[in-house]
Amino acid sequence: MGWVVAFGLLAGCADPSLSQLETTLAEIRQMPSNEPGIVVPYVPLYPTQRYRHSEARSPFSPPESVQSGVSGLLAGSENAPDQQRPAEPLEQFSLQELQLVGTLRMGGRQLAMIATPEGEVVTVREGNYVGGDYGRITAISEQRVDIRERIYTQQSGWQARPASLTIDDER
């Protein structure tokens, strides 16, 4: 009996103008649209061309003379850095970012204390690497750290250049 009452209530909720709405929507769908039709532009057909440079060197690769020269210089030059060794902590900074803050003699060895841009002080000795240009510490004195950097130029290949860090009294 409850089902009959519920069905009667739902039937009473039906809108008598629902059929009129469906008729109006059907008429709207049948009416012509005011929007212009889509015009597809004419695309001319061009004759197929053969790419004549497919056997040539890619323009995104260096010429073979440069490629072979670089690989030869990377491996054969006496100034070429060892690319296989693990990087040391101070190699992630340029020499201009590093500051020599002190030196000391410990166990017969001269050590240097170098501050990074973050304020961390790293102790290094002769033979450690510093800077972004494969710089290697060659000597440490009381006021100075001598460094031998290795730079690559297209014209000359790997070249060694001297650099240094000094204790700056003004800082």
UniProtKB/TrEMBL annotation:
Pfam families: PilP. This is Pilus assembly protein PilP. Residues 53-88 are annotated as: Disordered. InterPro entries: PilP. It comes from the Bacteria. Gene3D superfamilies: 2.30.30.830.
